[in-house]
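Re: the 73-residue chain
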Amino acid sequence: MKSFLTRHQPKAPPIRWLLAGLGALIAIGVIGALTTYSDAVFLMAPFGAGCVLLFSVPSSPLSQPMNVVGGIC
């Protein structure tokens, strides 16, 4: 039972948390601005999930460029 409650990834330093949050904030802000000031409509849900993968766990197989670009577009 204990194996379900343990972390399977190494602990990240707090600076990495801050950089991940800042990167996601900037990226989502840019998409929001593009949606507001252009005629195109961008979906935020897949972009938010891509930001979580890309900025929080960049070494994950799901965070590789093909998966991120294919998942967001």
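The chain has one domain: 14-72.
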